[in-house]
């Protein structure tokens, strides 16, 4: 079924969501395989997309294959809806699929993300699509694809712990802070994409479906809902998430991931929610962080 | 003395078209026994070693290994997963060039600990302690535990390779010219170490070498190969002191005396 | 109890392939036995094959024909046809050999060289070293040499290490190749006493003794090897 969705003069007409139906079929098959084998990297025939490699082509292809006319799409980059990439990708889907878009996590049915998981707990009817640069968690230790495939096939993951061991030997603790490797459903070791390790616990037993797309590397993998996702560690160096010693300067939220923002050239800085939607909502509800509090006082 | 051999080799041959890699090799290897396979370049000794250690599939013949539960398995009827597991736990393979048997960009401690982590050890402190003990055992200063083998001398790398192989308590170790390329004094030290470890741990070993002195020092039994055939075998001191075959006599008489 | 050592119709020759297959007969039809507590001396001129006989008995040389029957534990083993594993087992527990030359591993200390045969038989290292020290003491080897590898020792010192190493266990058969050749009178006497002690303990000894006195002191009978020689040596 082909729909003309372009409203602008001079633009070629695209199939719904840009990809032709055969391609969507191929990608959906890959997605189904990925869901059937949680954490396993399924190769797929990644297409040429109208953005270069490194700009989310994998995530876009996954989203394009699953999106329907009833869907509501949210796109974030580093947690924010208003950064360049998030804005462009959202505009892209508006153009080629004419779907409803939102910045509210609660209202979205598909959330495409680069490098963060929303703070808001995801629900059963939601799909989280991650953009992945390098899908292979063992790549930096074992450059041969032939070897890493065997290691996954034979569940030979000693090398992964070697990496963590080296961290502890060098730094006194596991120094990996993002793209922290996890074991999925007790079988495959997976790279959760460059999300901060702070977000790893959110992947565990999530109600939502998590899909991962790597366009340049041509791999898709998945974590079905209610799947065990465990971060690798040692008995005497257990996995720990980052802790922030101050709450968000704008909304006062605690236990969320904060971004550091430099305010001036005198070392002034503030820590604010990385998840912009989450921060906005809290402020609408009346929460205020110490910076906002001061502003209110000044206003009064 | 146990009653059953650890390794049963029957009629192992490897052909490359018409060319003979090795031909009709048969022997039993018993626990605690060290067998030296001696020959010059092109004798087929390395081909044989590779056929025995599952690195090369023989054209004919069987190699049966006694598993820890006492039962024999034909190595070439195992799945690759089983073979790889065997290679990591019950066996060792010491390469001539230590860089082939080590991860050069990972610390010495991690090199030794990798096999432990591969079989499921998850306590950093204990893994590190075991690694440290092994470094001591192979006479590497333990304060080098966090250094990479790239910074080690040839002899140190070789000793590290040995530690890496022995950490899981293998019962059978294959060695391919373990002293090749090392300085003479370094060789002596390494051989002494290997001899001690083999004795202390009751290892079986198959050592390929062109150096008869290595065979004399390390092995109980010896096999002499030429052009892919085993031309003489027996007790090491017997073969070296009373060689019967012409080629063996030639080899023994060719050693330069210092 | 079975005779510890029975040699039956043993023959040997060397074929020198590097000399166009030149055949050198060594001995032919060697037959004799040694009883427990007996010390048999191999006699005959130099080059007649005495050392070769000892080496054949030890499995170091192959034989062309015949049998070498050793009473090992509760079995009889024929060294001439036994597989390497069995020969090693016999050497470890029953058959000892004092060779003329000491061939040692480069870095092992003398006391450990001597203790090794005991450790190989399951004795605890500490105990084995103590016993080794006793023997070295008896043989008057200077204490400050004990921790050194014997490679740089004098002939006499090396010989004493060799003797200590072979006498430390309770092997039932001992083969001795010129055990006192480089020793002075005092140490010769020590070795004689040690051999006597072994005899009293029921060990069967077969030896080559260059020294007339020692031969007289320990030998029960002389076996002239010339009778087995296929070569006629000019008198």
Structural notes for this entry:
The complex is a heterotrimer of chains A (about 300), B (about 260) and C (about 240). Chain A is an alpha/beta fold. Helices cover about 30% and strands about 15% of the residues of chain A. The model of chain A is unreliable at about 1-5 (pLDDT under 50). Chain B has helices at about 45-50, 80-90, 100, 110-120, 125-135, 155-165, 185-200, 210-220, 235-240, 245-255; strands at about 5-15, 20-30, 35-40, 60-65, 70-75, 90-95, 170-175, 205-210, 220-225, 230-235. In chain B, the strands form two sheets. Chain B has a six-stranded mixed beta sheet, sandwiched between helices. Chain C is built from seven helices and nine strands. The longest helix of chain C has 16 residues, at about 185-200. The mean pLDDT of chain C is about 90. Chains in contact: A-B, B-C. Chains A and B meet through helix 5 of A and helix 2, helix 4 and helix 5 of B.
Chart the SSEs and their pairings.
The complex is a heterotrimer of chains A (300), B (258) and C (235).
Chain A: H1 21-36, E1 42-43, H2 57-66, E2 72-77, H3 84-97, E3 100-101, E4 110-114, E5 127-131, H4 145-153, H5 158-171, E6 182-184, E7 188-190, H6 200-203, E8 209-214, E9 219-223, E10 229-231, E11 258-262, E12 269-273, H7 276-284, H8 290-299
Parallel strand pairs in A: 2-3, 2-4, 4-5, 5-8
Antiparallel strand pairs in A: 1-9, 6-7, 6-10, 8-9, 11-12
Chain B: E1 7-16, E2 19-29, E3 34-39, H1 45-52, E4 60-66, E5 72-74, H2 80-89, E6 91-94, H3 98-101, H4 108-118, H5 124-137, H6 154-166, E7 172-176, H7 184-201, E8 204-209, H8 212-218, E9 221-226, E10 229-235, H9 236-241, H10 246-253
Parallel strand pairs in B: 3-8, 3-9, 6-7, 7-8
Antiparallel strand pairs in B: 1-2, 1-4, 4-5, 9-10
Helix pairs in contact in B: 4-5, 4-6, 5-6, 6-7
Chain C: E1 5-16, E2 22-34, E3 39-43, H1 50-58, E4 65-72, E5 75-78, H2 84-93, E6 95-98, H3 110-120, H4 125-138, H5 155-167, E7 173-177, H6 185-200, E8 204-208, H7 212-218, E9 221-224
Parallel strand pairs in C: 3-8, 3-9, 6-7, 7-8
Antiparallel strand pairs in C: 1-2, 1-4, 4-5
Helix pairs in contact in C: 3-4, 3-5
């Amino acid at each position: 079924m082909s729909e003309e969705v372009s409203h602008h003069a001079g633009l070629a007409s695209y199939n719904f969501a840009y990809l032709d139906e055969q391609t969507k079929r191929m990608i959906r098959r890959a997605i189904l395989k990925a869901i059937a084998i949680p954490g396993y990297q399924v190769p797929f025939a990644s297409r040429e997309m109208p953005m270069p490699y490194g700009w989310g082509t994998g995530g876009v292809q996954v989203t394009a294959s699953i999106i329907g006319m009833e869907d509501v799409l949210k796109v974030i980059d580093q947690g924010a809806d208003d950064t360049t990439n998030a804005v462009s990708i959202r505009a892209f889907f508006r153009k080629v699929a004419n779907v409803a878009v939102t910045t509210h996590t609660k209202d979205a049915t598909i959330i495409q993300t680069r490098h963060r998981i929303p703070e808001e707990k995801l629900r059963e009817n939601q799909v989280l699509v991650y953009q992945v640069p390098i899908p292979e968690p063992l790549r930096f230790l074992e450059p041969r694809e032939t070897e890493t495939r065997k290691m996954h096939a034979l569940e030979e993951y000693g090398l992964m712990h070697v990496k963590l061991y080296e961290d502890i030997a060098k730094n006194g603790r596991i120094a990996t802070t993002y793209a922290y490797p996890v074991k999925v459903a007790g079988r495959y070791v997976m790279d959760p994409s460059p999300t901060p390790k702070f977000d790893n616990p959110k992947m565990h037993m999530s109600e939502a479906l998590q899909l991962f797309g790597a366009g340049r590397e041509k791999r898709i993998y998945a974590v079905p809902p209610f799947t065990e996702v465990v971060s690798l560690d040692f008995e005497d160096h257990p996995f720990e998430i980052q802790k922030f010693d101050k709450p968000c300067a704008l909304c006062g939220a605690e236990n969320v991931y904060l971004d550091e923002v430099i305010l001036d050239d005198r070392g002034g800085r503030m820590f604010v929610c990385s998840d912009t939607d989450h921060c906005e909502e809290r402020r609408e509800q009346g929460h205020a962080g110490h910076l906002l509090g001061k502003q209110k006082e000044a206003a009064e | 003395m146990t009653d059953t051999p650890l390794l049963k080799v029957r009629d192992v041959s490897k052909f490359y078209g018409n060319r003979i890699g090795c031909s009709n090799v048969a022997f039993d290897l018993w626990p605690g026994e060290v067998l030296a396979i001696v020959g010059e370049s092109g004798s087929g000794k390395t081909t044989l070693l590779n056929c025995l250690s599952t690195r090369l599939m023989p054209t004919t013949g069987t190699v049966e290994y006694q598993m820890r539960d006492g039962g024999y398995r034909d190595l070439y009827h195992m799945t690759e997963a089983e073979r790889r597991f065997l290679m990591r736990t019950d066996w060792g393979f010491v390469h001539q060039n230590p860089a082939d048997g080590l991860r050069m960009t990972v610390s010495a401690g991690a090199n030794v600990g990798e096999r432990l982590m591969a079989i499921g050890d998850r306590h950093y402190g204990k893994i590190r302690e075991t690694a440290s003990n092994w470094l001591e055992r192979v006479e590497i200063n333990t304060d080098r535990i966090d250094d990479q083998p790239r910074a080690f001398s040839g002899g140190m790398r070789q000793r590290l390779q040995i530690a890496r192989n022995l950490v899981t308590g293998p019962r059978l170790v294959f060695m391919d010219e373990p002293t090749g390329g090392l300085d003479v004094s370094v060789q002596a030290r390494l051989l002494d170490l290997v001899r001690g470890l083999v004795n202390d741990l009751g290892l079986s070993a198959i050592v390929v070498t062109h150096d008869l002195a290595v065979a004399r020092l390390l092995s109980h039994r010896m096999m002499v190969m030429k052009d892919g055939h085993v031309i003489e075998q027996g007790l090491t001191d017997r073969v070296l002191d009373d060689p019967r075959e012409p080629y063996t006599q030639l080899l023994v008489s060719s050693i330069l005396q210092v | 109890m079975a005779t510890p050592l029975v040699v039956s119709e043993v023959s040997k020759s060397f074929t020198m392939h590097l000399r166009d297959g030149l055949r050198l007969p060594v001995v032919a039809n060697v037959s004799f036995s040694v009883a427990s507590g007996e010390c048999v001396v191999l006699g005959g001129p130099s080059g007649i094959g005495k050392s070769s006989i000892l080496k054949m008995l030890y499995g170091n040389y192959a034989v062309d024909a015949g049998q070498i029957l050793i009473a090992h534990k509760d079995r009889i083993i024929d060294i001439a046809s036994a597989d390497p594993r069995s020969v090693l087992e016999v050497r470890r527990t029953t058959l000892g050999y004092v060779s003329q030359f000491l061939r040692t591993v480069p870095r092992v200390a003398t006391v450990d060289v001597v203790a090794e045969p005991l450790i190989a038989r399951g004795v605890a290292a500490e105990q084995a070293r103590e016993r080794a020290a006793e023997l070295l003491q008896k043989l008057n080897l200077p204490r400050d040499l004990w921790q050194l590898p014997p490679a740089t020792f004098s002939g006499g010192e090396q010989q004493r290490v060799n003797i200590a190493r072979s006498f430390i266990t309770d092997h039932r058969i001992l083969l001795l190749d010129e055990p006192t050749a480089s020793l002075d009178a005092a140490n010769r006497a020590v070795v004689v006493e040690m051999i006597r002690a072994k005899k009293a303990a029921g060990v069967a000894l077969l030896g080559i003794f260059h020294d007339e006195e020692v031969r007289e002191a320990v030998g029960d009978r002389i076996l002239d090897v010339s009778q087995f020689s296929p070569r006629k040596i000019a008198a």
